[in-house]
Structure formats: C-alpha cells, structure tokens
Amino acid sequence: MRLQSDDVRAAGGARVHSFAMHRVLTPVDYRRTAWKNGGGRTTELAVHPEGADFVHFTWRVSIADVTKDGPFSTFDDVDRTLVLLRGAGVRLSSGDAALEIRVPFEPVTFSGDVPYECALYDGPVQDFNLMVRRSVARAGVDVVREQAGAMRPARFRLCYAALGACECLLPGNVPLRLNERESLFVDAAGEAPSVLHVNPLTPDAVALVVVVDLVGAA
Fold first, then answer.
1. How far, rounded to the nearest angstrom, does the alpha carbon of residue 168 sit from its chain's CA centroid?
2. Do strands 97-101 and 108-111 pair parallel, antiparallel, or not at all (unpaired)?
3. Cα(163)–Cα(166) distance, rounded to whole angstroms?
4. What is the CATH number of the domain that holds 153?
5. Which of 14, 77, 160, 206 makes a 20 to 30 Å CA pair with 104?
6. What is the pLDDT of residues 61-86, one digit of tens each?
7. pLDDT in tens, 135-188
8. Domain containing 68: what range?
9. Residues 143, 127: one domain?
10. Which of the listed residues 105, 133, 161 is the one where a domain comes to its end?
11. What is the secondary structure of 126-162 as a DSSP string?
12. Which neighbouring-strand residues pair with 208?
C-alpha cells in the first residue's frame, strides 16, 4: 500500500507532513466469494477490517452478478446501497414493500435486516453493492459523471471507475488515473483527511465514490 503525503502549515509557518494510505486496485486485486446465502457469486473490491467475513465486517464494497430470481441475503444491523451497473434491473419485494432498481448509476438504499425476494426484469444484471454496519459506521455512494466532483473528507473513500476512465486528485500526489473497473482506496489512518477530487476523463464516464465515517468506538 502506497503512502500519500499532504503538506500543511502549522501555526508559525512550520511545515507538517500528514500521511494517509492509498492504493490503486485493479480487477486482479479483487476477491471472488460466494454470497452469504450461497445463491451466487460476488466480487469484493474492499472490506474493513481487511479480510473480514460477513459476520465481522464494518463496511464492504462488492459487485454482484445476479443471474436468476431468488432471495437476497439478510444482514442484521446493516444498511445496503445498490447501484445498477448493467442489465435491465431488478425488483426487490418483502410483503407489501417493493423496491425497483432499474435506472443505471442511481443509488438505492435499504435495510439489510429485511428479507427481500429478488426478481429480474429481463435477464442477468450486475450491481455495485455497499454494505455498512450502522451501529459503527455511516456511509454513502456519490455518483460522479459529466463534471468533476469533490468528495468530502472522511476516514475511508473508495472511487470505482464504473464506466470509462476517471482521474483522482489527492493533495501532495500526482493525478491518479483509473481505467474502467479499477478503484482507488484511501484510508486516512488516524490523520486529518483531505478532499478527494474526481474528474471524468470522457463524456460518458461514470465514477462511484463510497465515503465512510466510523462512529463510536469502531
């Protein structure tokens, strides 16, 4: 993992070096795992703590390939955000409640405690999936397209180039290019986090940026 150095001025003009960890991830760095309920496969982009399983993660980002109708895994104390990447979409239903996930690159958030049934609209889909344990963390997904975006400081950020290429700017570093399906993982690691700027490099490029803050004693 590569260290980023942010140079800031303290009172009196002294230079202070603030370090945060960042790493560019490519598909070879991702981890293929089975769904919690065994109904399919998912590609894990990042998880905290590193290597945590479905019971012990604080937050997790993955991409799922959904090829058939069936139940969604339930996760107690977990909020989920899905973003449709490819395909016609899905309908999630639980009793009288229903969620439609049909618009590409539009985040939909729901409780992982609820047992949803998933129905495909027209063939297989691929979705981007953020899961965060609400008792210890808060997180969301920002969509960057058509124009540059500035992601607020947070303990963790993960930028995923969902379509086309993008450029990430961190203070004290050269611009970092992400090709499609690559990610940038940033961990402030106890230091004061800085703003992350994300610039789409083509008119149709889309980047998904996860922003995570820990709460309590996490």
1. 15
2. unpaired
3. 9
4. 2.60.120.10
5. 77
6. 999 999 889 988 899 999 999 999 99
7. 999 999 999 999 999 999 999 999 999 999 999 999 888 999 999 999 999 998
8. 30-133
9. no
10. 133
11. EEEEEEEETTTEEEEEEEEESS-EEEPP-SEEEEEEE
12. 143, 160
